[in-house]
Amino acid sequence: MPADGIDFTAQLESLLEQVRAKGVRDSRVLEAIRQTPRHLFVPESHRMYAYIDHALPIGEGQTISQPSLVAQMTQLLELTGSEHVLEIGTGSGYQTAILRRLCARLTTIERFPRLTLQAYRNLKPLNLPPITFVIGDGTCGFPPYAPYDRILVTAGAPPKIPQPLLDQLNPDGGTLLLPLGTRQYQLLTRVTKRGTRLRAKTFGECMFVPLVGKYGWKADEVEG
Ligand code: SAH
Known about the structure:
Oligomer: single chain
CATH architecture: 3-Layer(aba) Sandwich
Radius of gyration: 16 Å
Low-confidence stretches: none
Largest sheet: 7 strands, mixed
Helix content: 25-40%
Bound molecules: S-adenosyl-L-homocysteine
């Protein structure tokens, strides 16, 4: 995979080793990571760090998530290929690319127009099936296309789950995966909906940039 004169193949394989070591064994998820060149999703100034297992800055004070966490979250979604997915927090578009390889239909929402535009440009060379990009407040979900089989939030939400996201989940086993907690750290939480019943399970600590919106943190609380 030569780009800018650099061959990232060996670095990608070593990243995949680290992802496996963190418990990601789903071969479809690992293959989606292998097929998605992360260096295309980070600013040129940080390209040499693209295959290190770290979050990196992407502008607007936001980050591309840590790849092992992207893989863990994707695995927790248990996608079979037939799902309708809503992603909240497009960011660089890296997680978007991975999701798009594993589901039937994908809508992704971002609050910063500049990041949406950049994500669109990052994703274009990958020639993936169509993705719907929405600019707006993802804490309100995206009602026109609801219900969703999966909703993935890639920013840290306050302890109270945004009600619109629960409302827009498919009642036949739809799942919402989101980091819930304080602004500093969160618990990765998966909520499954059956009928009117909701079941939550947590999967350890994580650190995400804040989810800012009507049902998230207030902009002046986090951006001061
Ligand atoms: N999955 C992305 C993660 C980006 S960081 C990646 O790996 O590149 C989280 C993103 O969520 C940021 O781009 C931030 O702007 C966005 N975000 C935060 N609150 C949001 C909201 N209410 N609606 C939509 N996007 C939001």
